[in-house]
Specification:
Strand 4 (97-110) and strand 5 form a beta hairpin. The chain folds into two domains: 7-36; 39-196, Beta Barrel (OB fold (Dihydrolipoamide Acetyltransferase, E2P)), CATH 2.40.50. The protein is globular, with a radius of gyration of 26 Å. The protein contains four helices and eleven strands. Strands 2, 3, 4, 5, 8, 9, 10 and 11 form an eight-stranded antiparallel β-sheet that branches. It has a three-stranded mixed β-sheet with strand order 1-7-6, with no helix packed on it. By secondary structure, it is of the alpha+beta class.
């Protein structure tokens, strides 16, 4: 009886091919079983009046600057963790996911003794496979230039204000002399004119 053997080169190729197939099958299974990202849209922030003076009047600071850091989202739950039932929990105004943002101030339109670096929070953010979007404007990242209208939370605002009491009424992403707002673009001259006409200090 004659027993035939695969040449060693073919044998090694067959083993390598089998190993690669198993690896790809494993990756495919892991991809199929990965957590599916969940997005929650929190509406109510998409506003952009033609006359910016009322928003400027309500703001403690109106500044232009550059985002230097975007920190991970922080929950305002007592244990700082994501609640088991997010949809139900966020109906409580004291339970929020907030994203802290650090801004290096380059120009002050309004505000006294404005720090060179400001920390404010945006409603919403990311936590693992969960994203809560506020609709306030485009996502921010380091290097983004902003003109931002910041208000200060009252003392009874709740736990989110302990991260930072500053929060935006409105912001524009700056690109040259064009300011991209949540609903439409405006020119830098429009903002300058707002303050030439006198927002209340």
């Amino acid at each position: 009886m004659t027993v035939s053997h695969l040449p060693k080169r073919q044998d090694r190729a067959w083993v390598w091919s089998l190993g690669l197939s198993l690896l790809l099958a494993g990756l495919g299974t892991a991809w199929a079983l990965r957590p599916v990202p969940k997005t929650i849209e929190a509406h109510g922030y998409a506003t952009q009046p033609d006359d910016l003076r009322p928003i400027a009047d309500q703001s403690i600071y109106v500044v232009e600057g550059e985002v230097t850091r975007v920190l991970p989202g922080q929950w305002t739950t007592p244990d700082k963790r994501r609640p088991a039932n997010v949809h139900q929990a966020i109906t409580d105004p004291n339970v929020q996911l907030r994203t802290p943002v650090q801004l290096s101030v380059e120009r002050v339109y309004k505000g006294d003794h404005v720090p060179k670096v400001l920390l404010f929070t945006l409603p919403g953010g990311r936590d693992g496979d969960l994203e809560i979007r506020s609709g306030l404007g485009p996502d921010l990242e380091p290097g983004t230039k902003l003109v931002i209208f910041l208000s200060e939370a009252p003392r009874n605002a709740g736990p989110w204000a302990r991260i930072s009491p500053l929060y935006p009424q409105l912001y524009f992403v700056v690109e040259g002399d064009t300011l991209h707002g949540p609903l439409k673009d405006v020119s830098r001259a429009d903002v300058d004119l707002t303050f030439e006409q006198g927002a209340q200090p």
